[in-house]
Amino acid sequence: GPGLLSLDDLDEAQLHALLTLAHQLKRGERVANLHGKVLGLVFLKASTRTRVSFTVAMYQLGGQVIDLSPSTTQVGRGEPVRDTARVLGRYVDGLAIRTFAQTELEEYAQYAGIPVINALTDHEHPCQILADLLTIRENFGRLAGLKLAYVGDGNNVAHSLLLGCAKAGVSIAVATPEGFAPDPAVGARASEIAGRTGAEVQILRDPFEAARGAHVLYTDVWTSMGQEAETQRRLQLFEHYQINAALLHCAEAEAIVLHCLPAHRGEEITDEVMEGARSRIWDEAENRLHAQKAVLAALMGGR
Ligand code: CP
Asked: Is 234 marked as binding a ligand?
């Protein structure tokens, strides 16, 4: 059924239509109405942006949200996902789910019978990348023909960026330390898509090579509250992958800097760049709201 589990669920035309709808909703050129609709939020992990932007998006569209976090439902006490999904699907009109395994998200989608939206898994973060592409399009007035450089950890955000950039015709170079490259299957899929859209996909080691000629520099956290020993190991391995003035100097003169947040200043990005003239990070965070309104309207709006 309909839903947004991966950016690969959207074809190129659907991606562009969603970004256009988000842009129009943001500017008040179009309205969408979800009066009477209820979105359930199933969040197994902490969230500022995703949780708040989905909640406010539903309120602004005239709908409502209900918190279905596992600590408050029987899922936290072992009720199977498939049973939970079948029941929730009879009460609410959509689910936004933040969990670990992509397969768990897929199980919700298989059994709920209502739209399920990926609010972050270990494999992908599609809603984030819709906001990123909206921000890039706003800034440059186009997407096709641009180049984005992602430096750091080849994680869920990198996966969705690979797919989203390839679909949007944005060339993407991902530079990571050895052992932290994105899933090769995602890289291969992005290359296949890029073959159709004229974009280029590169998986690299050297962050400076990635940044050369880039219109967008992008990074994400290196360490998310892991064990202390692992944190120290990562800080060393990722040392040369920081977005700083030197890396920015390698990119195009009009290049912008994005970060999905939360940021660790002094680790993956310097305070100077975050607060500098090329940063579009706060617009990017705002655009989570507009991009997700478009997703909610498209998936739950009905006609
Ligand atoms: N970028 C992002 O998903 O932020 P949160 O974890 O705060 O939702």
From this structure: no
What's the Cα-to-Cα distance from 152 to each of 29, 185, 216, rounded to whole Å? Answer: 37, 19, 14
C-alpha 270/C-alpha 58 separation (Å) is 34
Give pLDDT, residue 235: 94
Tokens read off for 279? 């940063």
Q: Look at residue 224 in the predicted model and tell me its pLDDT.
A: 74
Tokens of residue 152, six digits? 């750091």
Q: Which tens digits make up the pLDDT trace of 25-58?
A: 999 999 999 999 999 999 999 999 999 999 999 9
Regions in the chain scoring below 50 on pLDDT: 303
**CA neighbor of 65 nearest in space, from 43, 96, 39, 42:** 39
Residue 102 CB–ligand 1 contact under 6 Å: no
DSSP state for residue 265 in the 8-state scheme = B
Which member of 98, 159, 234, 278 is catalytic?
98
The pLDDT of residue 227 is 78
Q: Are strands 171-175 and 256-259 parallel, antiparallel or unpaired?
A: unpaired
* Six token digits for residue 114: 């209502």
Question: Annotation-wise, does 274 bind a ligand?
Answer: no
